Amino acid sequence: MSSDAPSAELPPAPAPTPATAGSAPAAGSQAVIALILGILGLASCQVLGPIAWYLGHQELQAIRASGRGSAQDEGMALAGKILGIIATVALAMVLAVGLVWILIAALVVLGTL
Known about the structure:
The protein is mainly α. The chain has helices spanning 29-43, 49-66, 71-110. The termini are far apart.
């Protein structure tokens, strides 16, 4: 059975272009890093909170100043910044409670309580 209808073949996909050495990082790479550090800072290691806050803030400024990046990049940077702020506040609270405990322990040891 031969068919006179033309066969529907798709054109070949274009070859991917290789990344060149020294090329600029992706627009949202700092946003992704800020988001990851913010999540880790909030979940387990509050010390990462200030770093996430800083990176998120810097990336938001860069995105808004240059107009580069998508709304998704801006959202990730903002989320990283907010999570960094929350983790930083949690870190400050943990340090404050720890300091109070140390002071109480010192006062108990010295016999003034």
